Amino acid sequence: MVNSAAPVTAEPLAPAAVFDWLDQAADLRAAAGLTRTLRSRPAEDPVLDLAGNDYLGLVRHPAVTRAAADAALRWGGGATGSRLVTGTTALHTELERELADFCGAEAALVFSSGYAANLAALTALTDPDTLIVSDAYNHASLIDGCRLSRSQVHRAPHDDPAAVAEVLAARTQPRALVVSDSVFSVDGNAARVGELSAAARAHGAALLIDDAHGLGVLGPGGSGAVAAAGLAGAPDTVATVTLSKSLGSQGGAVVGPRRVIRHLTETARTFIFDTGLAPAAAGAALAALRLLRAEPERAERAREVARLLSAQLTAAGLRASTPDAAVVSVRAPGPEAAVAWAADCRTAGLAVGCFRPPSVPDGISRLRLTARGDLTDAQIAHAVDVIRRTAPLG
Ligand SMILES: Cc1ncc(COP(=O)(O)O)c(C=O)c1O
């Protein structure tokens, strides 16, 4: 970090030494047990996957993969340009219409990722006259959106609608936006969306819910946490979603009132200056959405798998979270133990997520399990057995 108070002598440095500081940073991460590495996944992986976010098991559903292939054959490998230039195909338009309809909202706007959708909502719906009240455990993309906004940001205590109301009541800014994940991605607990809405409404604020982990799992037929809270179509409520979890594809969307969507279309930088979502991804998401609408029991099964996983892990003596949606976490004694535990699970044929600081806001390292709705009871029992057998002491 450069200290702007102290003059810096810009001595010449050998080009090969310019990035030396990165090696020191990597050493520090290694010493803290925070090294991260990439592993390429084989197409035919024999490992049982509880690490991805394919909550409904749709990513390889024949209707989804066929729709992706058909879209690529028909429209090409990429969108060719930004949405406002050449990057909007009929598939994007249909997907937006059907997503909005499914969520009970007036309109939707598709982005190239959920991350981009969150940056768009937070930057376009705020200004220097807006106070953002953001849950302390919100996803990194919401935090980055807050940072990019030119608003004052208040980091509210986790899951505390009363604290949110207090901050809103004391604000000096004319506008306010309350922002929260619907389901917190690490522990899988749900926000009290109805109470957040009541707090926002009592103080003239808008509500933004990141429903990345709620769409396809919560609400009637999986229509999401906003619908579950009775807020579908509410004029003061906006949701962001990802197409990359329950919908087995890639991309994101903002769903909400028509005038919000129009404003984002005309002003959101991550919409305007980004190439449109690839047609194959739009086609796959649309096919998955249609499957979910035809078979709404998929959402209930994902929730049931989560309950079964949690109950069986707890019965095995492990500290599993009580799931509100389709994420179950299991506490590990520390970051190194969590990494070793996840590796031992993999060796035993089970892929699980491993979350540790700085990805966990409370400093607790965990395994994270995706309660896929397509898991059989035998697969659930097998997963629990592997996790129990490989559990670290402590
Ligand atoms: C809560 C939450 N919001 C947003 C995102 C970002 O979505 P995407 O992966 O589509 O960029 C994720 C995904 O990782 C997430 O977990």
UniProtKB/TrEMBL annotation:
Pathway noted in the entry: Cofactor biosynthesis; biotin biosynthesis
Description of how the protein assembles with itself and partners: Homodimer.
Catalytic activity line of the entry: 6-carboxyhexanoyl-[ACP] + L-alanine + H(+) = (8S)-8-amino-7-oxononanoate + holo-[ACP] + CO2
Family (UniProt): Belongs to the class-II pyridoxal-phosphate-dependent aminotransferase family. BioF subfamily.
This protein's UniProt keywords: Acyltransferase, Biotin biosynthesis, Pyridoxal phosphate, Transferase
InterPro entries for the chain: Aminotrans_II_pyridoxalP_BS (IPR001917), Aminotransferase_I/II_large (IPR004839), AON_synthase_class-II (IPR050087), PyrdxlP-dep_Trfase (IPR015424), PyrdxlP-dep_Trfase_major (IPR015421), PyrdxlP-dep_Trfase_small (IPR015422)
EC number(s) given by UniProt: 2.3.1.47
GO MF annotation terms: 8-amino-7-oxononanoate synthase activity; pyridoxal phosphate binding
Known cofactor(s): pyridoxal 5'-phosphate
Name of the protein described by the UniProt record: 8-amino-7-oxononanoate synthase
